[in-house]
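ingest -> validate -> predict -> emit
validate: passed (alphabet ok, no gaps, 398 aa)
predict: started
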Amino acid sequence: MIIPLVTVTFFFFGWWIYWAFPNGPFITGGLDTAAGAANTPWSSTMGPHLGDRITGVFWAAFLLFSWTVASIVSGSVIERINSGAFWILAVVIGSFAWIIDASWGWHASGWMVKLLGYHDAYASGVIHAIAGGFALGILVVLGPRLGKFAADGSPREIQPHNPWMVCIGLFVIYTGFWGFYVACNVPIISPEGIGGLVKGGTWTATTIYLTPNTLGAITVNFLMSLSGGMLVAFMLSKGDAFWTCSGGLAGIITASAGNDLYHPIQAMIIGGIGAAVAYKMHFWVERKFKIDDAVGAVAVHGYAGVVGLIISGFVLWGHPSSVYEGYAAINPLGQLLGAIIMFGVLGFLPGWIVAKILNGMGMLRIPKEIELLGLDFASNQDQLAASAEIRDANKTLV
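emit:
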């Protein structure tokens, strides 16, 4: 249900937010009404229009990222969240929270790029840190799955039902992630196309910030960061298949902030660091705060995304964040503040607030009886009948 719900809401207001809010608003300027007006549901570029052959492609690419942030959250909260509550949360992050952070930090004129020197070419923070923070905010309110923690508070390991499918799914993600890297590049823009700010001939691609790039460079860095993450995760987890494959994903996410600029060896090392942080942080947070993240999504996407932003601030310190003059250069403080905004301000806080509201209305979590029976066996319509049936069975057993 992420696909239809987020698609429709992104069409009606999500795409407009991206174009209307790069100034904050009121941080570097007001609401960009002109750019927003060209991307409303009723504008000519959003319908059949022979004069514009590209807007729909970019709209669909950003929509894919909206689906992604919502699907990342879904993994953390599985097996105990009410479907209706999740649909609301998916719309909040998919068509509102993440697109605000994209407008601020993933836009050629975003205020974070201008003032902070924020650089996040392939979305360590813009997609992954915000999704991890949003999921963590929900999990704090939602609570762990039944039986996850023993009476003494120690966590129990709940193994996947089908490790083969888990590994195949992660390899499908790798494939899609490379496609995501490609989709983050604006194809074939000449120097004249961005005001003659880039010297030389036509570039094969630019990043979202209109800085020159090539598909070959990001392909090598993508594979090196994937490999660095897998190698480290394999060693730390002692060959656990789930964490080895998840470590590859964490490696990509960690290096993504600067993978348009890193040397391949840097990408490999940074990917390995991110996998180590994700693996260690997942189990530490689980033990310390009793947070039950069913698939490690908060760690792999959130913690890895945050550490990726911070590392890039040091490794790329002083490099231009944009082709435009007067913009702040990439720096550690700007990347740290960006990580806080992505993970905490636009991620954790909205997730926690909306989850608290839903929980207060009794809509967030499924009944205990349904959780024991399994959501795959009990639809919402069956909840009352199943609850009564299980209660009767329990009485008989007693």
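The mean pLDDT is 90.
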